[in-house]
Specification:
heterodimer, A: 291 residues, mainly alpha, two-stranded antiparallel sheet, B: alpha/beta, six-stranded mixed β-sheet, four-stranded antiparallel β-sheet
Chain lengths: 291, 236
């Protein structure tokens, strides 16, 4: 039993990490809490639902289209809403604007899909296999695998590609980066796009693993990403992974061994404790979070 | 090479420049002198496109730069080594240098240049895999200059490269500036250290509260009574 709970926790954790990575990268580069993150990727997830349920498109293609749509929406939100408020003195205003953007995106989705919980088809046939003496669902294994793969690709890209290094430098010092000839607007746009894409992949994996999706998951997704990012160290890639993992695991352990109604209160207590004890997060350093 | 005409600029409501004009000819070292707050760094920011002037024009190699983005200006051949070094603290020395060459496509040439700067600044070579934030101030300054040169600029803007450095390093930095210039790079050197700067510059401008108070050939300024009285008094 404990083994299965931990495995599901790791799966959920990997998906949370995927969602958090996008959120945290965006924070790292603009120091902006992107409240629209969750609603943006739920928009993409719902597009995937329509493609799968209504048009019967192959799951891989459906996820790809949905991810691009979600990435495109994130790109648009940055371009239309955040770009003009990028200067440090506008930080509070841009935060409020981000809340506004979240509601606009949420309401657009609501017009199209309504606000009830919808069933989400399983992308792979749900079978159970016995692995190392544990009863595990194939869906969970594939979910875990895809999430880990996406994160690994992202880490390799950030570490070794010229563009990835440039993104990192823009988040360290935007003015100095522009003096290197790095096109700041293009870099910021691409980070938003990537954050949206990874978020949609996370959203689809999660919805497919639980066979459900709803608009409410958008705001909850933003909160989860925020909490995981703060716990792990906001702006840091490794921190997003660690934070996502801690949340996914503790959520499942609490849900099973305590009570699912204590899940959210305990999670957000964790957030408050973290902010009080080590506001930079486990892997964060003060340099990255300084304003 | 660079023609700047009647630049006015401000931060919010605070006016920093009131009509500054300056020219740099191919191959020159031009010094921009003045006390703290005279507007020197602001002026450089206007030239490299980081700050939009309220009026006035900048022309670089015959092309107007008004409204041109900083990254385009770098591609056009200008590099700005900003005040306070501004290396990327969490990135390695190597990555900092690679980023300096972001606009270049010739990988082999970039590698060669990096090795060249490791020869000129051996300490950077020894610390190539170290995070730039862990370097000493002088080492960071060398890194900032080398990083600025990685784009192979034809005009280099240097904002107080000697600030906070030990005298022996200051001399080293000045020698390097002269060598770079001899190799064909035009230089706009912003400094507070009037004496040393005039010794290597062809011409100089003195900024005072956002306007050019004096300008002329460096050797003439060194003899000018006004300059000696106001700026060189305690040095000699």
């Amino acid at each position: 039993m404990l083994g299965e709970v931990i495995l599901v926790g790791v799966m959920v954790g990997a998906v949370y990490a995927l969602v958090t990575v996008g959120y945290s990268m965006v924070f790292g580069i603009l120091k902006l809490m992107n409240f629209a993150h969750g609603d943006t990727y739920i928009f993409g997830t719902l597009i995937c639902l329509t493609l799968l349920a209504k048009y019967n498109i192959h799951p891989v293609l459906a996820i790809l289209i949905a991810a691009i749509a979600g990435g495109g929406l994130a790109f648009l939100v940055e371009l239309l809403v955040y770009r003009r408020l990028r200067a440090p003195q506008h930080r509070l205003i841009s935060m409020i604007t981000a809340l506004g953007a979240a509601y606009v995106v949420q309401n657009i989705s609501e017009l199209q899909w309504g606000n009830q919980v919808m069933s989400f088809p399983s992308i792979v046939e749900s079978k159970f296999v016995t692995l190392l003496g544990l009863q595990v669902s194939v869906t969970h294994i594939i979910t875990l695998f895809v999430a880990v793969l996406c994160i690994a690709v992202l880490i390799l890209f950030m570490r070794y590609s010229r563009y990835g290094k440039a993104i990192d430098c823009v988040s360290q010092d935007m003015d100095a980066a522009s003096l290197m000839g790095i096109p700041i607007n293009r870099v910021v746009s691409s980070v938003y796009f990537m954050g949206g894409v990874l978020g949609v992949v996370g959203g689809v994996l999660y919805s497919s693993a639980y066979n459900a999706v709803s608009l409410g998951m958008g705001f909850r997704g933003t909160l989860i990403a925020f909490t995981a990012a703060v716990i792990g160290g906001i702006g840091s890639l490794g921190g997003a992974l660690l934070g996502g993992m801690i949340l996914g695991l503790s959520e499942n352990l609490i849900g099973v061994y305590v009570s699912s109604s204590y899940r959210d209160p305990l999670l957000y207590s964790l957030l408050i404790i973290m902010l009080l004890v080590k506001p930079t997060g486990i892997l964060g350093n003060s340099d990255q979070t300084k304003v | 090479m660079l023609v700047v005409e009647d630049i006015h600029a401000q931060y919010g409501k605070v006016k920093a420049l009131h009509g500054v004009s300056l020219k740099i000819k191919e191959g020159e070292i031009v010094a921009l002198l003045g006390a703290n707050g005279a507007g020197k760094s602001t002026f450089l920011k206007v030239i490299s496109g980081m700050l939009k002037p309220t009026s006035g024009s900048v022309t670089f190699r015959g092309k107007p730069l008004n409204g041109v983005r900083t990254d385009r200006i770098v591609i056009a051949g200008m590099a700005h080594v900003p005040e306070g070094r501004r290396v990327f603290p969490m990135a390695t020395v190597m990555t900092n240098l690679e980023m300096g060459a972001f606009t270049r496509k010739d990988k082999a040439g970039v590698k060669k240049d990096i090795e060249r700067y490791f020869d000129i600044f051996p300490v950077l070579g020894e610390r190539r895999n170290q995070r730039a934030g862990t370097l000493s101030g002088g080492e960071q300054q060398m890194l900032a200059i080398a990083r600025g040169l990685m784009s192979r600029p034809s005009l280099l803007l240097l904002d107080e490269p000697a600030m906070g450095l030990a005298p022996i390093l200051v001399q080293e930095i000045y020698n390097i500036v002269q060598e770079l210039n001899a190799a064909g790079t035009s230089i706009l050197l912003v400094e507070q250290n009037v004496h040393k700067t005039l010794a290597i510059a062809n011409r100089a401008y003195v900024l005072e509260c956002g306007v050019v108070a004096i300008n002329g050939r460096a050797e003439e300024l060194m003899k000018s009574e006004e300059v000696i009285k106001c700026y060189l008094g305690e040095v000699s």
